[in-house]
Amino acid sequence: MSAKPKLSTKPEQFTESVIREMTRLALQYDAVNLSQGFPDFPAPEEIKRAAQEAIAADVNQYAITWGSKALRDAIAANFLRTQGMEVDPEREITVCCGATEAMIASHMAIINPGDEVIVFEPFYENYGPDAILSGATPRFVKLHAPDWTFDPNELAAAFGPKTKAIILNTPNNPTGKVFERREMEAIRDLCDRWNAFAITDEIYEHMLYDGARHISMAAIDGMRERTITINALSKTYSVTGWRVGWAIAPPEVTSSIRKVHDFLTVGAAAPLQAAGAAALQFPDSYYEKLAADYLARRDRLLGILTRAGFHCFKPRGAYYIMTDISAFGFPDDVEFAKYLVKEIGVAAVPGSSFYRDREGGRTHLRFTFCKTEKTFQAAEDRLSRLNPSRLRPIGTVSSRAKSRPPFWAGRGARDLLFLLRIQIERLQVLRHRHRPVKFRRNRSVKRIQRLRLAVYQKRPLRRCLKTGEPPKQFAAARVCR
Ligand code: PLP
Q1: Do 201 and 169 meet the contact criterion of CB atoms below 8 Å apart?
Q2: Please, which pLDDT band fits residue 465 given cuts at 50, 70 and 90?
Q3: Which residue, of 15, 138, 189, 325, has the greatest Cβ tally within 10 A?
Q4: pLDDT digits (tens, 9 = 90+) for 169-178
């Protein structure tokens, strides 16, 4: 047999999107999906009507590759209105297939072999792969809880002669941080010193709470010439599936981005660009209502999560809540996220997916609140079954259990034989379900816990052996009786 052709080593350096994987699990387990950031309520009537009218009017062929004139004009007018900055729609705007394409096209337009890109972590999970796919080496700088700010010395140490760009996302996913002027000026000074670009993802610019103000990096003194500003229709108009976004950059940079974009995708959907041009002209009242509605949703989810035992980091922008899950005692955010989706019926994103060094996110879980009251109510009902005082870490024994005599004490031979049998049956069930028995830390204590569960829960185990149902008590072995 001939050897197989070799695959690229670049995709080996990152995993598939964990966020989208959580959505797939939510569907599989019929869970309430608070993982992926897409609204489950309708888009505004006006934007939908504009799209329908565009299709009816036969706006069906390729738009100009860097974006229809109407949309670029509307983007320029919008930037003037929100940031007071004039940009030339003919030379400084490229319309792409979502912020996602605008981001990778911008990377490819500026990166050369050996370049480095600075990424704050926790990060929106695309940024690492964007750097790698474009041939740059990502360098990560931590945002520290609880207010998710960076240490200026750590940031300064990450910059150097190889730094080509820093990626900034404000308002921030996943933390909800809104960067302040002094932080942006500190970044500006470093970009200036090391002659680097700033690529700023401003897709949540209108979702701001508690008096937070969004400042565009391009509007900071001295940054206009070295900033690529990325935005999209996706979040502001609740149309994440339309895939229309853009990059605003100085003319020379734009001409490089346009070439990359042309050969990546040719262009974004023409009728949806027409609808975008209409949406960008919505009155101020649209954005005020959007922010007010999201504020109410944020507070609703904060209440639900806090009552369920999560420690929440209150976001000042975007539509996510980062939480601390230490109270639940799980050793691992991924384990907890799987437990939540399978046993409780709520999907969230494990914090480690926002960190290169996965340990950094082990105690976090991210929830989104771009959801309807019906979804919140369902999540609240399900999360009420989650009680931190009833959960404990793997490998530890509750104080009640500690005061109990060992499981074998006072048991006759019949009981012990039963225990052995049930243990064999359990292994058969697990094998039948292709679930390898994994022993993690402190194997002996965990094993004893399982055996004890097996003895005390004879009936349910027998029933599930009969019906072939999964033996739930093993999946939820951390729940104290
Ligand atoms: N940037 C950030 C920070 C996001 O959170 C998301 C989506 O969740 C995107 C970009 C993706 O934007 P788009 O759907 O326009 O590609």
Answers
A1: yes
A2: very low
A3: 325
A4: 999 999 999 9
**Is pTM, for the whole model, over 0.85?**
no
Task: Determine the atom of ligand 1 nearest the C-alpha atom of 245.
Answer: 15
Max Cα distance, the chain (Å): 87
Q: Is 202 in the pocket of ligand 1 (CB under 6 A)?
A: no
**CB-ligand 1 contact for 172 (6 Å cutoff):** no
C-alpha to C-alpha distance for 301 and 312, rounded to whole angstroms: 10
pLDDT given for residue 417 in this prediction: 67
CATH class, domain 45-281, is: alpha beta
For the CA of 234, the closest atom of ligand 1 is 15
Q: Is the CB of 173 under 6 A from ligand 1?
A: yes
Nearest CA, atom 7, ligand 1:
37
Task: Tell me the three state secondary structure of residue 17.
Answer: coil
- With a 6 Å cutoff on the Cβ, whether 116 touches ligand 1 is no
The token pair at 274 is 């027409």
Q: What residue ranges do the domains of the chain occupy?
A: 17-38+292-387, 45-281, 399-475
CB 463 within 8 A of CB 469: yes
Topology annotation, domain 17-38+292-387: Aspartate Aminotransferase, domain 1 (3.90.1150)
Q: No. of H helices and E strands in the chain?
A: 17, 14
In tens, the pLDDT along 40-75 reads: 999 999 999 999 999 999 999 999 999 999 999 999
Region of residue 332 (phi > 0: left; psi between -120 and 50: alpha; otherwise: beta):
beta
